[in-house]
Amino acid sequence: MALVSAEGVVLKTHALGDTSRIVVVYTREHGMVRLVAKGARKTPSRFGYALEPLSRGRYVYYFKTDRDLHLLSQADTLTATGSRLTELTRLAHAEAALELIDRLVWGEEPHAELYDLLVRALEAVVAAPEAALPAITIAFELQVASLLGYRPRLDACAQCGSPLSLELLFSPARGGMLCDRCAAEGGVLKLSADALAGLSLLLSRPVGEAGDYVEVKRTGEILRVIEAFLRHHFHRFQGLRSLELLRALQGPGSSEAA
Ligand SMILES: [Zn+2]
After folding, report:
1. What spacing in Å lies between the alpha carbon of 138 and ligand 1's midpoint?
2. Residue 236 sits in a domain of what CATH number?
3. Taking burial as the number of CB atoms within 10 A of a residue's CB, which of 65, 87, 170, 197 is the most buried?
4. What pTM does this model have?
5. Which residue, 51, 82, 113, sits at the end of a domain?
């Protein structure tokens, strides 16, 4: 049993017994870890904000190689992100980022680039103008999928490399845009020119800059296309509940805003 230290972001927590908590942390050094925080539900907790979902902190814990749960020894808050998010829309987009990592990543395999992307996305959600939040979420979804080996192809047919159909047809199963011949096999979604332009822009720019792209149009359409793509390639992905909740609250006819 070794005492290890890792920087991480809290994805979610569960109650354990009367006073303790299980905390799921996505760490830079050790991937996804589940920590037992004894006494964490006593008030005041000695861990402060460090165990709240969305918080970024430094976690010191006893690592056991053959165990799924590790005992937390110390937790220090680096950024109490949740306490900086008071608006519902911002909170929903921040939670969508956590949900995506929770569904697409598992195991103690570290992926520093993916961790850094999550931290930058959360910073962007805190700081960006509210109108840019959908662009940040789209950029994050596209770039997480790319880092995990599923980068959608948008510049030529994803199946054969030929020039794209002028109809602008996207296949979630084949991982990108198609030519006329490959599209004839079916299973395609028709994109607007604005949606394709938005997808291309947000796939290639740093997620921290996505906040500059308030002008990205058709974000509701783009989100639906990406979700179809993610559902196809990641079996644990079933859509983002945080964004569905947001759409429900905003009511019918406002899907382009979420
Ligand atoms: Zn083709």
Report:
1. 25
2. 1.20.1440.120
3. 170
4. 0.92
5. 82
